Amino acid sequence: MRLEELYNWIEENPLRSLTANWKATARKTIYYYCKERDLFLGKEILFEALDASTYKLLAEQYNSVR
């Protein structure tokens, strides 16, 4: 999923009110759980970077941490 597609989905399906910085928060969350990014926390790998702005949710890892 491209970041812009994710942003559009969040805007269309908000689970709570969105802050002024919500896009940065969403992007940071992906980076925290994507080993290809500098912000990776070194914990669970929930996303795979396919290119600079496209990410794949690794469903098997996501389901194990829920």
Highlighted features:
3 helices, 66 residues, single chain, 42% helix
What does this structure look like?
There is one protein chain. This protein has 66 residues and is α+β, with helices and mostly antiparallel strands. It is 42% helix and 14% strand. It has three helices and two strands; from the N terminus they run ααββα. The protein has helices at residues 3-12, 22-32, 59-65; strands at 47-51, 54-57. A two-stranded antiparallel sheet has the order 1-2. Strand 1 (47-51) and strand 2 form a beta hairpin.
The number of helices is: 3
Label the overall shape: globular
What strand line-up does the widest sheet have? 1-2
**Helix/sheet category:** alpha+beta
For the largest beta-sheet, the strand count, sense and barrel status come to: 2 strands, antiparallel
Query: Helical residue percent?
Result: 40-55%
User: Distance between termini?
Assistant: 20 Å
User: What letter string, H or E per element, gives the SSE order?
Assistant: HHEEH
Query: What percentage of amino acids are in beta strands?
Result: 5-15%
Residue windows where pLDDT falls under 50 for at least 5 positions: none
Q: Find the count of extended strands (DSSP E, 2+ residues).
A: 2
